[in-house]
Amino acid sequence: MATAKHYILGIESSCDDTAAAVLLNNKVLSNCIANQTIHKQYGGVVPELAARAHQSNIVPVVDQALQQAGITAKDLSAIAYTQGPGLMGSLLVGNSFAKSLALALQRPLIAVNHMQAHLLAHYIDQENMSAPPFPFLGVTLSGGHTQLVRVTNYFDFELLGTTKDDAIGEAFDKCGKLMGLPYPAGPDLDKLAQQGDPKRFSFPIPKVEGFDVSYSGIKTAFLNFLHKNTQQVPNFVDKNRNDLCASLQHTLVKTIFEKIEAAVAATHIKHVVIGGGVSANSEIRKQLLEKKTTDNWKVYLPPFEYTTDNAAMIGIVGYLKLQEKAFEDLKTVADPRLKF
Length: 340
What we know:
By secondary structure, this protein is α/β, with parallel strands linked by helices. Helices cover 42% and strands 18% of the residues. α3 (114-120) crosses α9, α4 (168-178) packs antiparallel against α7 (236-267) and α5 crosses α7. The longest helix has 32 residues, at 236-267.
């Protein structure tokens, strides 16, 4: 029997990117993103400005996604959107638009957990991308989250560990800013690190029980280190930027990698699935791929277009929930602290 055709509109507005995608079942037909450059001048996302930009961007982005997919809104089978976690103002824009469209078209409304979507993006039908079997160990690394999760089916997520304070992506960006790198600093820091010596400088790795991690202490240690050395050598950062980036990246990655290794040992799950913006980091990818050889891990790395916030990952969760008829009504609210 032929598989029924379902067109799913995914809407993502959890932070500063307004995104819309159209999927035909589990295959992406369009994946459009409107980035907000205004935050660069502030060195971080300003929530009120982000919400205003979403209001301006959401209609044109959805229209673009539909046009690229070659369909009209009336062809849609369901509307999926990010319920949380994220910035409240930003979430409300996507929430309100999705509800309005679902009501106008009389289509099912599907609420999606942003963090689940980062990992379930691996179930998008794409060439050279294999879907992980259950159970797997999920690792979400982004500007706002750092999590280790045991995933036993599409919607059964058990949080094993998380950050006690700052996320790994925030640590990359804030430490990069201290060295004069533009926001977001993570990609530039990664490039410079590849030209530096990761063992040139040493920074402490916080000791945290279980599978939890902490990044605030590393940020403070790095700030104090720069302050001390620039007092003695004013151009210390300029002279040592590559080595500083390499040493810092080594510490940030080692902090989470030790926890991933511990989680694999404790759960005996060797299928490791990575998601989130920091999963694009070259050092993380390098170390994970090495584990395939040394420890026989099965590693699943997302394509770069599905690492940062995007609507395709919302759409695939929408499709999976559509199969289960896991719909929401118009009373569903945005939740900036949404849990699994």
